Amino acid sequence: MRRGLTVPAEGKNPVKTKYSPLSLVAGLAGLAGGLLLSGCSANFGGSASAPDQVSMQQISGVVHGGQQGLDNAQVYLYAVGTGGYGTASTLLAGPATTDAHGDFSFNGGFSCTAGQQVYLYSVGGDPEVGPGGTSSGNNSGAGLLAVVGHCTGGTGITNSQGTATGFVFMDEVSTIAAAYSLSAYATDATHIASSGTALATTNLSNAIDTAFNLVSQSAGTALAAPLNGNGTVPSTEINALADILAVCVNSTSGSSGCSTLFSDTPNGSGTAPTDTATAAINIAHNPTANVTALLGTVNSAGPFQPAISSATSFTLAVNYTGGGLLNPIQLAVDASGNIWVANNASGSTGRLSEFNHLGVPANSTGYTGGGLDVSQSVVIALSGNVWVGNSNVGETVNNLSEFTSAGTAISGTNGFTGGGLANPVGLAIDANGNIWAADNGAPSGTTIVSEFNSSGVAVSPAAGYPSGGVTTPVSVAVDTSGNVWVAGGESGGTTISKLNGSTGAVLSGTGYTGGLSAPWGLAIDSSGNAWVANNTGNSLNEFNSSGVLVNTSTGGGLSSPRSVAIDGAGKVWINDISANVLSEFNSAETAQSPPGGFTGGAMNGPSSIAVDGSGNVWTANFATASSSLTEFIGAATPVVTPLVANLTTGTKTPSQKP
Question: Is-contact 316 633, C-beta < 8 A?
Fold first, then answer.
């Protein structure tokens, strides 16, 4: 029994199939159409199935270390568990034993339950690195993962494209793809699980899909572009991580390659892994740990090329384009994991973009109508409806647009107006479904906040609510008590404020101060503390629920911080619109990102940030020439989406795990 892993005793007779790679390819020729991972998914609501038992079609594959098969590896078929994040996976079948070429097959005799998410784990095997390619004995440190797909109600297991899975290539690349995509759910290779709630089930299905955006299931190679072809995948980083694992996989048990890898990849408690699959999970959890040392174990002739040779962190970021993106200014995530983006481009038709959890745009041009103009902000209601704040350059248009979850405008040609609305740069929704706007362009030097009910009728008076001393409000957030916090980041602002969410009355007097310098981003954590990004102070401030400054943090790449998001573990994420980096701080205010921040994913002017329910971090890249979205795979802890649902379900706090 390996420390930290629960591998079932080999009580069943292993299935052992003898055939050559050529005969395998020939035998699979008839399945070629079902094995190609191409096209795009029309599913914008995650996977959902009836909870019935499904008898499985044959699942076969090959286990490779580097570019050669692993002989006598033990392969297990698991379903992701539902007993709580990081608890035990559910064993469905195994072990199947690989032959001299690394081939294996599960021929049936087992079933899965519709809605389960399925993956493969292989352990051990002989890499045959002895003289002349002869046996070198079992390498107990070799552990590999591969995502299989979704157990459905009628077609067995399917991939993200709805195609039945028949063959899976397991190697170091598939291991990295699975480890990062399922990072939020994993403790080690046999402890991958979610909470099992309906929302968590959708998010887990989305996370399984994400792996298919990174690796070819039938070839075990990193993809250059996501499945829809509308962007780039960090294939050189994936290859480098795969090469790091391969140093151990393609060696003998207890080799220096394995011992070095394991000592450099402990988990958060300091415990070293004992196989490469868990090492990959630990790297995904701790992407800044021992980066240079790990890259130093790989030479230029690593089996997966091309690969990076230097890095400051091991984050994996995918870039997406299309969908009508043009100066995307803000984004928000709905309950199905879809990403909605407000576009700020002037001089063109106002548009709202939607992407599904795989970065596939709902259409090529975005949605129009409903009063959309130069959009400033976006937020998702509990109903799934999407609200957008608009204000054109001359501020002759100041309105809110509302769209259904299908992208149909329901706010009329001119949108919703009134309530003092003036350049609504920030939006938030409270537990009653009311929409709050931070008005950045109020006339005559006044600074105000506006409120609308869920029908688009102004609740605030014609002059709006006073902003409590905040100059040029730009962001707004709602706490557990229903109070509304406001921050203003322009004109040398040094104040944040708090309003009564029922009456609009100012609760903070002339505002809360302390260490603030052009406060811009604002988010509330589950303890009711307010986190504020200081755009010109290059710092992050935390205030308690009474408005008392708790701490000012720097480092972690903070430079002109813009927006703030808090994940399900209370970690704080901040984007920098000028230096093109992300910063991360834990709830104890310690920087988790490197001194230069997290980079990658073709970030260019990241103007806003959001965390989805699968633990991915998304940014909207404002720069005109490269308007796009960036997704950092598995970097965060999942959070309930849309954000307003945190206030109405579960612990009813602003940020909680699904």
Answer: yes
CATH of domain 49-233: 2.60.40.1120
Q: How far is 291 from 306, CA to CA, in rounded Å?
A: 18
Backbone angles phi, psi at 212, to 5 degrees: -70, -15
Q: How many CB atoms lie within 10 A of CB 6?
A: 13
Residue 3 one-letter amino acid:
R
Output the DSSP codes for 199-236: HHHHHHHHHHHHHHTTB-TTT--B-SS-TTSSEE--HH
Q: Which runs of consecutive H residues, i.e. helices, occur in 253-330?
A: 256-264, 276-285, 291-295
In what side-by-side order are the strands of the sheet with 549-553?
519-524, 530-534, 539-543, 549-553
Averaged pLDDT, 451-466: 97
Hey, what amino acid is at 89?
S
Q: Which residue has the tokens 């931070």?
A: 438
Give the tokens for residue 214.
């990174």
Q: To 10 degrees, what angle do helices 276-285 and 172-181 make?
A: 40
Q: Is the pLDDT of residue 193 over 50?
A: yes
Q: SS3 for 576?
A: strand
Residues facing residue 505 across a β-bridge: none
**118: β partners:** 79, 149
Q: Give bridge partners of residue 482 from the DSSP assignment.
A: none
Which string of b and e fits 526-554 if b means at least 16 CB within 10 Å?
A: bebbbbbbbbbbbbbbbbebebeeeebbe
Both structure tokens of 367? 């949605």
Bridge partners, residue 407, by sequence: none
Domain 317-647: assigned CATH number = 2.120.10.30
Find out whether 430 and 412 touch, Cβ atoms under 8 Å: no
Tracing tokens 């795979």 back to the chain, one arrives at 633
Summarize pLDDT for 416-458 with one digit per residue, the tens: 999 999 999 999 999 999 999 999 887 656 789 999 999 999 9
Residues 6+ apart with CB under 8 A from 13: none
Mean pLDDT computed over 510-528: 95
Asked if 138 and 253 touch (Cβ cutoff 8 Å), the reply is yes
Q: Identify any residues that bridge with 383 across adjacent strands, giving them in sequence order.
A: none
CA atoms of 57 and 60, how far apart (whole Å)? 10
**8 A C-beta contact, residue 589 and residue 551:** yes
Q: How do the domains of the chain map onto residue ranges?
A: 49-233, 317-647
Q: Are 331 and 607 in contact (CB under 8 A)?
A: no
Neighbour-count burial of 289, counting CB atoms closer than 10 A to its CB (0-12 exposed, 13-18 middle, 19+ buried): middle
